[in-house]
Hints:
The chain has 466 residues and is of the alpha/beta class. It contains 21 helices and 11 strands.
Amino acid sequence: MTDNYKDLSITREEVLTAKTKGQDELKRLIQSARNSGELVFILENIGSIPLSFGADCFLSLIEYENKDVRFWAIKNLGKLKSIELLPVFMHIINTESNTSVKREAVSSIGRMRRTEAIPSLISILKDSDPKIVCQAIRGLLVFKGCKEVDTKLKALKDHENEMVVSVIKKEYFGNESTKKDILPHYETYPFLVNTVVKGDVRDIMHYVPDQSVHLTFTSPPYYNARDYSIYPSYEAYLKFLADVFSEVYRITKEGRFLIVNTSPVIVPRISRAHSSKRYPIPFDIHHDLIKMGWEFIDDIIWMKPEYSVKNRIGGFQQHRRPLAYKPNTVTEYLMVYRKQTTRLIDWNIHQYSDKIIEESKVPDNFETTNVWQICPKSDKVHSAIFPYDLCKRVIEYYSFVGDLIFDPFGGSGTVGRTAKKLNRRFFLAEKDPVYFEYMKSFQRENIFEGTPTHFLTLNQFKSTIL
């Protein structure tokens, strides 16, 4: 608001009293306002207006210099729900420069709920501002089922704005976006539960049914950074990841999450005559994920202590010459995506019993920001192990007790062991036989405690399905 309410000489009670006394008294109060701050205060506190009131109180304010005055004047005009005001609102829409004021005029037409307003709302669909178009769609959806309205709205499925397309797909094409889950949302297939399969994850997922997994949390192998992640080219590496996450999309349940931990990676130079190359992996795979249908939700920064990362700043510390600055990289990304759906998060939550929801509540002292300070972990077998605390947060924040957690690059199995400890179930894939045997060694140490864990080759896994 333009002016501060602390300098007002009028109270909310006076505004309501004037309204109770009738239209003339309210008009007099409006005209007595000393400045735009008082005017906004009066207009904002009028509340409901008897339909018997005329528009005279507010019409003179729709051209007011202060945008907040214009906004509240139009909002109060809209409360009258008078079809006679349709030309007034259309004039505002065609001449107003402020988006919020313009949207309120469109909203006022929609609140009339009159068939006479349909042509006007349809004409607004051509507006260049997608927020205005969405407001017109909202007004037209009151008449969903009317052939003219349905035809005009369905045509917007090819609109250039993603929010417009999202609304139209939800209202008219929602059943096309997701295959029907043949299992209850909270369930999965028994042959996947607490299972580790050795083999190429792309071959393994071929045998996993649609909508089997509740949460995928993984860290893909970094491009040509370690012996177990050598690819002929960066493009080949990105295609590999796209192939994997496309299948993950298929096997993920409607509206559930994929969380990918990665970061830019440096490929060392081959000699002092050449430069090293830094590849922005999280930014390059993001585009492919969006094209598959994953919806971007959040970026979480995993921050490590500086002593735990490779020192890149040493040379610069000595000479401090511009252009040669290379900071120590203490962060990785946890990119959070949700499988596309027309349903809200509440729908996913309500698929569970009250008992499960209560058992799955996140404990106190949860992280409130998107910067998570957690020490990395490694051992003599695997140089980049998921820290337990990192897995614990992700699994607690993005799954329910009993859910199936998938890691397509199982590594040392931390995702599986953490899932089991948190009363979830897990399904892991791992190509490297060394890591596969390493996970089996934890079974012998009874770290995969409770119900048995199945360690299977790809052929053995296929036989459990048949």
